[in-house]
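Exercise 7b. Backbone tokens:
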């Protein structure tokens, strides 16, 4: 109770800076070797009248108010570097863009070797953040009609990489695509298992 009261008495802006510095200090040693930054959004259905609960995208409990937790963590260690709680309507990666930029700025020289995210993060905003900082990224694209056409065209080609034991049976092929709403053509790698 004493700690809770002491934290409650702190000014929000001052406490946030103090907490972020303490968090970064506690994980710095884990970031000395190459690591993967995973991006994830989790929808948390709510029961009752919690602050910020809004009806939004909620695949498991449609019509139920929710919060969205945007999480940035070290993949192999499952160590959370940052998490942002938003209302149920703020589930898209657009709402994680500013916190991601802030986190990458704080990491500086200890930036990840790879940024990885699901199809919710496979969009031009997140790709631009990675490319501006020259960070390799692996982001899944939504299977839109154009992506499906690209995949069909690629499956007919013979220049897939060899499915070696080291690749655990996976083959890859590279091409480029410009999706609607994107400002430029992007390089994509399609994977398949043999």
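Sequence design result:
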């Amino acid at each position: 109770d004493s700690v809770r009261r002491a934290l409650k008495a702190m000014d929000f802006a001052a406490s946030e800076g103090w907490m972020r510095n303490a968090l970064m200090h506690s994980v710095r040693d884990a970031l000395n070797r190459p690591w993967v930054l995973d991006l994830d959004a989790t929808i948390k259905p709510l029961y009752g009248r919690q602050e910020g609960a809004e009806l939004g995208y909620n695949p498991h409990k449609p019509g139920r108010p929710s919060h969205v937790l945007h999480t940035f963590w070290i993949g192999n260690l499952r160590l959370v570097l940052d998490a942002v709680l938003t209302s149920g309507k703020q589930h898209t990666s657009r709402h994680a863009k500013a916190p991601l930029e802030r986190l990458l700025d704080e990491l500086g020289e200890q930036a990840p070797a790879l940024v990885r995210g699901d199809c919710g993060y496979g969009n031009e905003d997140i790709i631009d953040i990675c490319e501006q900082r020259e960070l390799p990224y692996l982001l899944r694209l939504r299977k839109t009609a154009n992506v499906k056409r690209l995949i069909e065209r690629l499956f007919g080609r013979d220049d897939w990489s060899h499915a070696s034991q080291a690749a655990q049976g996976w083959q890859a092929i590279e091409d480029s695509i410009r999706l609607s709403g994107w400002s430029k053509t992007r390089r994509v790698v399609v994977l398949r298992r043999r």
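Instructor comment: The radius of gyration is 20 Å. The longest strand covers residues 36-45.
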